[in-house]
Amino acid sequence: MAKHDSIPVSSSKLPLFAPFAVPKIGNMATAWHEILHLGTKQRHSAGSIVKVEGETCFDLFYIDEGKVHVVFDTIDGRMRSVVSFEPGSIFNLAPAATRCEASGQYQCMTDAVIWQIPGKVLHDPVFAARYPNLMLSVIELLGTLVLTYHTYLTDMLMDDFVTRFSRFLISLSLERGSDEFPLGMTQEQLASVFGVHRATLARAIQHLKQEAIIACFTCRRVEIIDMERLRHMAHL
Known about the structure:
Blueprint (H helix, E strand, L loop, with lengths): L23 E2 L14 E5 L4 E2 L9 E6 L2 E6 L5 E7 L4 E2 L1 H6 L6 E4 L3 E6 L7 H6 L1 H27 L2 H16 L3 E2 L5 H8 L3 H13 L3 E4 L4 E3 L2 H7 L3
Parallel strand pairs: 1-6
Antiparallel strand pairs: 2-9, 3-8, 4-7, 4-9, 5-6, 5-8, 10-12, 11-12
Helix pairs in contact: 4-7, 5-6
């Protein structure tokens, strides 16, 4: 396997969400451990949807264990993951802060332990004065969400799929430290992550093979044979 000691591409030049296709947010809200006693502990199984409706619509949800994705239904009836919240992060923050409902659902990608915290604490001046670190955490997380969605939408609107797919491969290669690595998901699953038809993904794979940029692309093995040209495809 080829190692990446000489790859000149800095991860800072990649889109914020590039390393995982679905942008990850995690380990940013550990200060919230101070107020978990105000919340209710929940356990969710992998694949389940966290109910955020009615009285809970504007509550906060702290992930103690597990992984939760924001998912949307696509036109063809599939669910597309947009953002991944990891342990140590808060989700449903924007609706809680603005008291405006948001579209999409929160789906547990793994078994998860989640604390539901009343969203009204964000609007309590006494609470804000007592827990200034939490308020700073709110600002940081909201800023990260804005930047994540901005980068995501910009990339979606400005780049064609081959460009985005090339960036995805580069970032995975950098993460794994090799030009050869397992993908860990089927092409159908990857197409769903990107929000495209499987045929669109298949055409991109075939194009990179015809250009002699990748030699293999399966669930168990991806092999990049021309990193320089792949970077060119990614406009990096």
